[in-house]
UniProtKB/TrEMBL annotation:
Nucleotide-binding as UniProt keyword: no
Keywords recorded for this protein, A-Z: Oxidoreductase
Name listed for the protein in its UniProt record: Aldo/keto reductase
Keyword Signal applies: no
Amino acid sequence: MKYRIFGKTNLKVSEIGYGTWQIANDPHMWVGATKEESKKSLAKYLELGGNFIDTAWVYGYSEEKPERHPSEELVGEFIKESNNRERVVIATKVAPANWHWPAWKTDKLSDCFPSEHIKKQVDDSLKSLQVDFIDLVQFHVWNDSWSDEQEWKDTIQEIIKSGKVKNWGISINDYQPSNCLKTLDTGLISTVQFIYNVFHQKPVEKLLPYAKEHNIGLIARVPLDEGGLSGKIDSNTTFQEGDFRSSYFSSDRLLELEERIEELSCLLSEEIQSVSELALRFILTHPEISCVIPGMRKIKHVIDNTAVSDKGSLSSTLMEELKKHSWERNFYPDDAKDPNMADTNFLEI
C-alpha cells in the first residue's frame, strides 16, 4: 500500500481508503451487509496497509431508530475491539439539518448547519465512534454562497480548540466540483470530498488545479460509479429491494452502461486486468488526489481494491484516451431535484 500526504492536515493516508456507507445495511440505500462480514473486511483492510476510514452520521439512518448511527457505531466497535485507534485516520460527516442532499441553491446556512446542530452531531459521532477526537469532520453538503458567513467559521474553530475535531472538510454536492472554491479561500477547510471517476471528469477543470496550488487534501468518492465501473453490472442486473441502484440504474441506463463498459473493456491488457482496476488507477494517476474511497462490503473487494495501489499510474496515452469516455449525467429521481436547477438537475455547467 502506498501513502500520500493529506493536504495541509499533514496526515499520511493510504491511497485506497475505505468507504463505509455500504457496510451499514442502510435500509433506504445499500442493503445486504452484515456486521460480522463488515468487521472482517475492515480487519483485512488494515492488515493490507489501509488506514483511512470514511463514515458519516447519517449512514444507516432509520426513522425507526433515529438516535442510532449504524456505520459510525460499527466502525467504533471495530476500532475498540481491535485496539487500532492509533493506526487509523477517521473521517465522518455532519448531516444537513433540512435533509437536502445535495444542498439546494436557495438553502441558507441556517437551514443546513446552524451552530448547535453542528455541535450536537459532532458529539453524537464521538459517542458512536467511541473515540476522544475525530481526525476529520466534513460538512455533508455545501453551498459556496455560505463562504462569507461567520457562524460556521466560529463554530468549527471553537470545536477545534476543544480538541474534539482535528480538521474540517467539505463533502461537496454531487456533480458540482467548483461549489466550494470561495470557501476554500477562507483557509479553514483542509479537505474536499468529491465525485470523480471515468464517467464524471469535470473536477479536473478547476478543483484539482486549485487543490494542488493550495495544498488541499482530496478524497475521491464514487470511484466505481455506484458499481457501474466495477464491470459486474450489465443490462440483466437486478438489485435487492431497498437498494437505491434499482432507480439509479433504470433499464435504459443499464443498456447504455453495458455499451460503455464494453468500450472500456477494449482498453484492458496484461497490465490492466479489469475495468475496476482501470477506474481506480485512473483516479490515482492524479498526484493531487490524496485517496480514493471505494465501498468494500466483502473481503474480496478489499483484497482486489487495495492491490491497485501497487500497480502505479496509467500512461499519459491511456489517460488521454480515457478522456473520451466521459459521461456527464446524474440519475437523481424527480422528487430529489432542486427546483431552482430544473434545467441542469444539479449538474455544474
